[in-house]
Each structure stands twice: as C-alpha cells, then as structure tokens.
Amino acid sequence: MVDEAPIIATGLNHFFGTGEARKQAIFDLNLTIKRGSLNFLMGPSGSGKTTVLTLMGCLREVQEGSVHLLGHELYGAGEARQVLLRRRLGFIFQAHNLHESLSATQNVLMGLQVHGQGSARKQMEAAQHMLGLVGLADRMDYLPAKLSGGQKQRVAVARALVANPEIVFADEPTAALDKKSGRTVVEMLKALGQTRGVTTVMVTHDNRIMELADRIITMEEGRVISDNAP
After folding, report:
1. Strand order in 199-203's β-sheet?
2. Buried b vs exposed e over 126-146: b needs ≥16 C-beta within 10 Å?
3. How far is CA 125 from the centre of its chain?
4. Distance from CA of residue 168 to its chain's centroid?
5. Using alpha carbons only, what angle is made at residue 25 by residues 19 and 26, rounded to the nearest 5 degrees?
6. C-alpha to C-alpha distance for 31 and 222, rounded to whole angstroms
7. How distant, in Å, are the alpha carbons of 61, 87, 203 from that of 82?
8. Based on CB atoms within 10 Å of each CB, which residue in 25, 153, 214, 230 is the most buried?
9. Closest CA to 31 of 58, 3, 61, 52
10. Tally of CB atoms within 10 A around 42
11. pTM
C-alpha cells in the first residue's frame, strides 16, 4: 500500500540484561510515523530515545511487540531481510564513523557502493554533488584528520543521504555542528521530506532547531510522555 506509514510501532517493549539484572528500557510504546515527516525524539539522557531509534532502524532485535518498517515486520525478521531493509535507510550518528584513510569523497562513495547504484562516474558525480550541498565543495579530497569536527559530521551526513534513502535515522546529528551548519543539515532533511517523501526520525537535544520539526515526541524513563502529532 503506497500510503502506508513507513514506521508503525505497536506494543513495543525492550529489556537489557538477563536474570536478576534484567531491566526494562522501553514500555508499551506505540508510534505511527508519517511518510515525509521530520520527527524529533526528545527527553533526558537514559529515557530510551536511542533504543527506540535502533529498534526502528533494525539495528537492534525487536524482543516484544511489533515494528512495521517499510511494509515489513521486524519482530522475528531474519538477518537477510534486515540487511535488505537497511539498504533503504540512511543513518547519521553523533560519532561520524569516517574511515580515516579515505578522503571525504571516498567516504561518501561508500554510501553508494553498499547499494551498487550506478556507474563509477555517476557515483563520483553524486558524491561530489552531495558534498557541495553540505558546504564541503572545497574539502572533497581532504582526509578526516584534516577536517574539523563539524566538517567530519557533514561528510557523515552526505554519506547517509547520497543513496536517496526512504528513511533517515539520526542520533544527535547537529551536536558537533555550529548553529548555521546544524540548521542547514536539518533544513535539508526537511526539504527531502517535502520533495521526495523522505521520512526522518531524529534524536536531538538541540533547542536551536525545534521549530523545524513536524512532530516532537518526548520520552522519559522508557515511555512517551508527550507527543504533538498533528
């Protein structure tokens, strides 16, 4: 179904540890995320935001409840299906996770080579275009050691977006960026939602970008305590 929400979480519970050390981290979470929307997950440290993000992004196994991602159930899904689904997603983490021996362009190219999209020339053009969009046209051949923290994070953003993902999962993507750069990244994600229907779920504490969100979901101690869903 074309109009089906790309993410539907129902009765989601999650636990860490085993035996007497077992602790519940997520409690009966129910969320439906609309296609093309920019969603912020907020709340204090330890409230479960990143756990929810990783469960929705098939980076962590669903233990109890249901996560329907792009029309596929993640509960009980095998590794092969999860790998195929991850190829339709983009990930931006607070730690940029760049390969130090590769240039900015080569790092972004990795986001395409995983998918095997297009010829080598087309891939290079796409990588260079995306680096230009994030303001790094003059840093394409630089190794990460020669880039500032904010520039490294922008390379990571370009790598996540270059393959045109259907959903972007972002964990504190603006934390290492100045106000202008952080806003540029979030405005780009919002524009991708409006023009291409890309859905974004972002963990953030950044009060500088709040008005850009379509929806703000606040968590505390593993539960949603407020949600301004339209």
Report:
1. 89-92, 167-171, 199-203, 38-42, 215-220, 223-227
2. bbbebbebbbbeebbebbbee
3. 23
4. 4
5. 125
6. 13
7. 10, 9, 22
8. 153
9. 52
10. 21
11. 0.91
The total number of residues shown for the chain amounts to: 230
Beta strands in the chain (DSSP E): 7-16, 23-33, 38-42, 64-69, 72-73, 89-92, 167-171, 199-203, 215-220, 223-227
How many CB atoms lie under 10 A from the CB of residue 198? Answer: 24
Q: Which two tokens stand for residue 119?
A: 């010829």
Q: Of 150, 36, 164, 166, whose CA–CA distance to 98 is shortest? A: 150
**207: number of Cβ within 10 Å:** 8
Q: What is the pLDDT along the chain (230 residues), one digit of tens a residue?
A: 445 899 999 999 999 998 889 999 999 999 999 999 999 999 999 999 999 999 999 999 999 999 999 999 999 999 999 999 999 999 998 778 899 999 999 999 988 877 666 788 889 999 999 999 888 999 999 999 999 888 998 999 999 999 899 999 999 988 888 888 889 889 989 999 999 999 999 999 998 999 999 999 999 999 999 999 87
